[in-house]
Design goal:
Layout lengths: L1 E4 L9 H5 L4 E3 L5 E3 L9 H10 L5 E4 L2
Antiparallel strand pairs: 1-4, 2-3
InterPro entries: 3Fe4S_ferredoxin, 4Fe4S_Fe-S-bd, Fe-S_cluster_ET
Pfam family, one: Fer4_15
Cofactor: [3Fe-4S] cluster
Amino acid sequence: MRISLDTDVCIGAGQCALLSPDVFTQDDDGFGTVVPGHPDEPEGPLVREAARACPVGAITLAEP
């Protein structure tokens, strides 16, 4: 699964890091980022939930 997080759209709500901390984290300014080398599975369902929970739709998921 390809995961993208649009940092220009992110407002730093933190839902992604809360729901899927192995894949998402927050930078020093509190905005979401994708963890380099993140595991694709078994976190798939949590990643999908994090994308749905993002209040501004900053997370995009694409199947390979």
